């Protein structure tokens, strides 16, 4: 744990300025935060005189926001730390999976090295929690899991993490279910799945096996769902039915879920209410080339929506920055969230919930007792940070600077 110190002259939000047209400005002030044992134990106005002899670290007037959660990533796939290599073109998903399978064995010895490079990048962009899907399939077995787990364990003093056992080449193929069980016994935390219709060709059986694994290992669920239209919608609806039967409330997520944006609004509202009642989450990467799930509607209905950068610099795509805040910026552009309040409140999609202010402008973070997880940026307020994605000057995890410097 970190020794006690004061993080001085940190800019924090104190409220919204508004008129009859709504919020037009965010009010801020400078504060001193006392940090001990990884937590914020005191919060004082900058006029407070710190007792002599106590350690001080100058925050230089930088704005503090909560650290981010990278909730959809593939640490095992990246080419980071290797020589540049662009993806080989593929005509469809089946061909892409075949090409990936061909190179899995060759990449396996460098999994820990490559994953570590990705972790460093994500940390530098402010993420102190990573949910990584890891291939579990007949071609690679548990090799990727071993490498990713070793890499994450090396960073356990800098972040928290979850590992999803991900049947990238299909859950119902060959001996994958047996491999998934081995993965759950050897470091995976969450049961994954992939396109019950498009890949497994049997929606009910695929989802049943996912939930069977989840209940056997008392694990959460996070399935990839690229299947679109009414087939994808039916898949989410069927998963919700199985979640309810298993009483797996607040323990299941659907990643991508493009299909929820393909159906008419009344159906979107119906499924959103189901997801909300079951505590099911949606994980989005805010792609620019696919229909998005209706994030605004889901959010209004109380569905937790999280963002992630997905895999990047890998056989699937050469693009990416590892910046979850940039994903929020893209969300703002796509949904025209350009006003002060909308920009400010949308930070929750990067942090996994916390924002400095409530919608009503009341201070919600940081408070005495909170974990000392902060990102320091050169911005006047959260709205500016979301709109302009400034450099992360320092990333602090449980009171310790884990990236950048102050």
TrEMBL record:
Matching InterPro entries: Amidohydro_3 (IPR013108), Metal-dep_hydrolase_composite (IPR011059), Metal_Hydrolase (IPR032466), Metallo-hydrolase_Enzymes (IPR052349)
- Read off the NCBIfam families from this record: PRK06846.1
What is the name listed in the Swiss-Prot or TrEMBL entry for this protein? Amidohydrolase
- Indicate the segments forming the Amidohydrolase domain, all copies: 179-402
One Gene Ontology MF term: hydrolase activity, acting on carbon-nitrogen (but not peptide) bonds, in cyclic amidines
Q: Which Pfam families match?
A: Amidohydro_3
- The protein's superkingdom reads Bacteria
């Amino acid at each position: 744990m970190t020794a006690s110190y004061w993080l001085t002259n940190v800019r924090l939000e104190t409220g919204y300025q508004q008129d009859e047209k709504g919020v037009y400005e965010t009010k801020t002030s400078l504060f001193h935060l006392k940090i001990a044992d990884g937590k914020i134990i005191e919060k004082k106005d900058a006029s407070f005189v710190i007792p002599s002899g106590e350690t001080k670290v100058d925050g230089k007037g930088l704005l503090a926001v909560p650290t981010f959660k990278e909730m959809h990533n593939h640490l095992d796939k990246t080419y980071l730390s290797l020589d540049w290599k662009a993806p080989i073109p593929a005509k469809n998903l089946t061909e892409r999976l075949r090409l990936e399978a061909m190179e899995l064995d060759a990449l396996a010895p460098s999994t820990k090295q490559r994953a570590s490079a990705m972790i460093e990048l994500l940390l530098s962009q402010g993420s102190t929690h990573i949910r990584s899907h890891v291939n579990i399939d007949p071609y690679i077995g548990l090799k990727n899991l071993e490498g990713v787990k070793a890499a994450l364990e090396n960073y356990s003093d800098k972040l928290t993490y979850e590992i999803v056992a991900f049947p990238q080449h299909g859950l119902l193929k060959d001996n994958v279910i047996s491999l998934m069980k081995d993965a759950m016994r050897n470091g995976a935390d969450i049961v994954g799945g992939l396109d019950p219709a498009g890949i497994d060709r049997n929606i009910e059986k695929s989802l049943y096996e996912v939930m069977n694994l989840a209940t056997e290992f008392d694990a959460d669920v996070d399935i990839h769902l690229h299947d679109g239209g009414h087939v994808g919608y039916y898949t989410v609806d069927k998963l919700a039915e199985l979640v309810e039967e298993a009483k797996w409330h607040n323990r299941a997520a659907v990643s991508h879920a493009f299909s929820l944006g393909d159906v008419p609004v009344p159906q979107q509202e119906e499924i959103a209410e189901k997801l909300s009642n079951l505590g099911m989450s949606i994980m989005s990467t805010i792609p620019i080339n696919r229909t998005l799930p209706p994030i605004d509607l889901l959010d209004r209905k109380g569905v937790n929506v999280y963002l992630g950068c997905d895999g990047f610099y890998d056989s699937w795509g050469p693009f990416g920055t590892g910046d979850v805040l940039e994903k929020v910026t893209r969300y703002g552009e796509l949904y025209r969230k350009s006003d002060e309040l909308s920009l400010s409140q949308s930070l929750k999609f990067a942090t996994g919930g916390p924002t400095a202010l409530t919608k009503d402008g009341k201070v919600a973070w940081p408070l005495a007792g909170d974990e000392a997880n902060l990102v320091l940026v050169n911005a006047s307020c959260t709205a500016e940070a979301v709109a302009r994605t400034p450099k992360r000057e320092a990333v602090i995890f449980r009171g310790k600077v884990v990236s950048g410097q102050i």
